């Protein structure tokens, strides 16, 4: 193989053509993000949280429940539903009484 001397412009042209060719032949593999998330359909969600399907549809319509919609497909992430359920926790009578008592004590002490 003989060595050829190239001008700067000729070298730039050769490199550019090589890069364009390499990029045109490159097909990136799709990026797949592994997930351990569990998706639920409306039927599965109704069974999981013991709500009637019309109630779930009403919550979706009012945007009161976290959900995903692609076309006519309605899906829910189980982890988001769990969080949503836990965020609706009501305090017990004892917890409320303890908070009132703590608030009363803080007021008696005054600003420090």
Provide structural commentary.
The structure is a single chain. This protein has a three-stranded antiparallel sheet. It has a domain at 39-91. A hairpin with a 2-residue loop joins strand 2 (68-70) and strand 3. The protein is elongated, with a radius of gyration of 31 Å. With 112 residues, it is mostly helical. It has helices at 8-25, 42-49, 53-61, 78-86, 93-109, and strands at 39-40, 68-70, 73-77. It is built from five helices and three strands. Helix content is 54%, strand content 9%.
Question: Can you describe this structure in just a few lines?
Answer:
By secondary structure, the chain is mostly helical. It is 54% helix and 9% strand. Strand 2 (68-70) and strand 3 form a beta hairpin.
Q: Radius of gyration over alpha carbons?
A: 31 Å
Strand order of the largest sheet: 1-3-2
End-to-end Cα distance: 89 Å
Low-pLDDT residue intervals, each spanning 5 or more residues: none
> What fraction strand?
5-15%
Taken in chain order, the helices and strands follow as HEHHEEHH
User: Count of DSSP E strands?
Assistant: 3
Mean pLDDT: 85
Structural class: mainly alpha
Q: Could you describe the largest sheet, including whether it forms a barrel? A: 3 strands, antiparallel
Count the DSSP helices: 5
Q: Which of globular, elongated, flat, extended, rod-shaped describes the shape?
A: elongated
Helix content: 40-55%
